[in-house]
Amino acid sequence: MISRIKLLKITSCLFLLTFAFGCSTPLMPKLIFKSKGKTKGVYHTVKKRETLWRIADTYNVNLKKLKRANRINDENKIKAGIKLFIPGAKKVLKVNPVKPLVKKVSLDRRIPSIKRKGFFNWPLKGRLTSRYGIRKGRKHDGIDIAAQKGSTIYAAASGKVIFSGWGPTGYGKMIIIKHKQKWVTVYAHNYKNLVKKNDRVKKGEKIALVGTTGRATGPHLHFELRDNREPVNPLNYLK
């Protein structure tokens, strides 16, 4: 005969097994199905000079959703070779890599540079929030002008658009205009670019709208003025 203690142990085990498997088993297939339904997508291998912003834009995926799906805290630290899960994507797409900031600007300095103040107009009506120079221990190559999202950004001078799209890491949507005497202006963090590459623009023409794309804490324009490839203080030249 089975002793009373052994009988109690057997009864307890049967009760636990019934609770663990008897009740839970019918629910498991539904949970697995839902989980798979939420994680449909593809894996994209990051290539050189691809940014998380450009990848998200190519696949038409919300940047925050993409970061959350891959447990990314800092979008500026993704490296070539890693695989990113793209939720909702049906196939792997080609992502256009970013280009160097002013790669096509000539280094020919035989033409004298502009020296007088007022050749360039202010590109935006707003509040100056950050100046050119050293900022928090790092060099800031331009100035920041804060304004409401969607405010109009104007060409500081007449010239030719040599870049319009997603810029290097942190710049977001950006426009680069080449002016006479080898000068270049840069307009970054735009919400929307209104001109495209190779467009000719006039001084004061609408070229973009203020935004927060890239590494930006609030809506503003990051504006740079470069003599060939060398950044200079825009405040010395703006009218």
Keywords:
2 domains; Membrane-bound Lytic Murein Transglycosylase D, Chain A; 4 helices; Glucose Permease (Domain IIA); 10-stranded antiparallel beta sheet; two-stranded antiparallel ribbon; elongated; 239 residues; alpha+beta
Which CATH first-tier class of the largest domain would you pick? Mainly Beta
Strand content: 25-35%
Give the terminus-to-terminus CA distance.
104 Å
How many DSSP E strands?
Answer: 14
**Low-confidence blocks of residues:** 13-37, 102-112
Q: Mean of residue pLDDT?
A: 79
Q: Any idea how many domains?
A: 2
Rough shape? elongated
What string gives the helices and strands in order? HHEHHEEEEEEEEEEEEE
The main β sheet shows up as: 10 strands, antiparallel
CATH superfamily of the largest domain: Glucose Permease (Domain IIA)
Helix content: 10-25%
In terms of structural class, how would the helical and strand content be classed?
Answer: alpha+beta
The tally of helices reads 4
Query: Architecture of the largest domain, according to CATH?
Result: Distorted Sandwich
Predict the CATH topology of the largest domain: Glucose Permease (Domain IIA)
Rg for CA atoms: 28 Å
